[in-house]
Amino acid sequence: MRLLTFPLTTALLCASVVPATAQSMADAPNADSAALGQCILDKTTGGDRILVARWMAASLAMAPQMDGLIAVDAKAKQATDREMGGLFTRIFTVDCRPQAAKLLKAGDRQGVESAGGKLGQMAMRELMSDPRAMAALMAYMNYVDSSKIAEIAK
Question: Within a 13 Å sphere around the CA of 89, how many CA atoms are in the beta-carbon half?
């Protein structure tokens, strides 16, 4: 059994929060991963999940594809990164220590990713419950040519 180093594991968990890792989350999680995922959901607060969503948005804004669309203040990004580091340290070393230790000692990267992804999913679900956010997401429908869509439904 190989023990993952803590910084690497934190990076894996942080990366797993981003929805782009949905591939690993699509696989059925093992019992240890499911236990860590449930613990993470049980031990995080609404404020924690808002932090996750803010961190995800600020991080995604750094992609060159977002140039001209989203701007994030460098100090605000650094502060959000610092808060995320604290959150994941708390989750791994305090809140969900026994569950995390099992996966870490087993070197189960996919299990860690899957468990961490649950937090990202919950953060996004909570954001989408906001009527303004949902309206903004659905605004593209104003530009869908429904007659062309209806045509293929015949």
Answer: 7
Contacts of 102 (CB under 8 A, 6+ apart): 32, 35, 36
Both tokens of 70, joined, read 């989203």
Find the distance separating the first CA and the last CA of the chain, reported in whole Å.
57
Provide the whole-model pTM: 0.74
Q: Map tokens 């989203």 to a residue.
A: 70
Q: Which of 88, 109, 94 is nearest to 12 (CA)?
A: 109
State the Cα–Cα distance between residues 129 and 66, nearest whole angstrom.
Answer: 24
3-state helix, strand, coil in the chain (%, to 5): 80, 0, 20
Name the amino acid, one letter, at 20.
A
The string of pLDDT tens digits covering residues 115-142 is 999 999 999 998 889 999 999 999 999 9
In the block, tokens 């990202």 appear at: 120
**Cα separation of 120 and 58, whole Å?**
14
Answer yes or no: are the C-beta atoms of 15 and 113 closer than 8 Å: yes
CA distances from 94 to 39, 43, 66, 88, 118 (A): 11, 10, 36, 10, 18
Average pLDDT value for the chain: 84
Residue spans of the domains in the chain: they are 6-153
